[in-house]
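Need residues for this backbone.
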């Protein structure tokens, strides 16, 4: 099932939207926008009736798409990332602070429409969306790790020192491992040499005993 509706908003003010079907999506959309913090990056999905409301926030803007619950979530978020890239590539973000509701319909609604048509072709974009979703998941984990580091008050210099120390420890460990392998090899060689010498001595002694018993050393 396809994407049905999409919009871009600054805080809770809808700047542009597009609907592929007739429906009363504005009320639920406004409720979601009113409780969404667009100041930091986030991705959320809300289920309302038989629809999923997918929300992407970044840099003070909210990008929202509505789709049937059967529509793949990763494609919905790939669509939101795409319209976000197109929105930030122009001058609209600079004009948004003083914009009135739906002021960007003429500028951006056609882009929303064309992207909906593109991403509704599920089979063609499924692989791209899956890869994009994996990249975004990695980025999300990295962002969380960075936030945790900043919360602990660690700065970049400390991180660099730790990285340098880890590299030194790794080099030291490698050197010790090489020396240990050499030491073990020499020990093994010493054991082998000792065994060979002992074996030769035993063979020599046994040979002497046999020769003595056979009278090899007796005078004729």
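Answer:
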């Amino acid at each position: 099932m396809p994407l049905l509706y999409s919009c871009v908003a600054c805080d809770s003010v809808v700047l542009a939207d597009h609907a592929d079907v007739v429906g009363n999506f504005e009320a639920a959309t406004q409720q979601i926008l009113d409780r969404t913090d667009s100041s930091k990056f986030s991705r959320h999905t809300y289920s309302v009736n038989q629809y999923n409301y997918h929300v992407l926030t970044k840099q003070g803007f909210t990008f929202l798409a509505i789709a049937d619950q059967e529509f793949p979530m990763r494609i919905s978020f790939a669509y939101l990332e795409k319209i976000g890239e197109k929105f930030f590539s122009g001058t609209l973000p600079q004009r948004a602070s003083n914009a009135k509701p739906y002021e960007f319909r003429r500028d951006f609604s056609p882009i929303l429409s064309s992207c909906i048509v593109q991403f509704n072709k599920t089979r063609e974009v499924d692989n791209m969306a899956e890869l994009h979703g994996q990249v975004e998941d990695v980025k999300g984990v990295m962002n969380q790790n960075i936030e945790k580091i900043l919360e602990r008050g660690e700065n970049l210099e400390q991180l660099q020192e730790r990285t340098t120390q880890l590299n030194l420890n790794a080099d030291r460990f490698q050197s010790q491992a090489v020396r240990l392998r050499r030491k073990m090899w020499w020990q093994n060689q010493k054991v082998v040499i000792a065994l060979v010498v002992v074996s030769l001595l035993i063979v020599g002694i046994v040979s002497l005993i046999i020769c003595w018993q056979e009278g090899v050393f007796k005078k004729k």
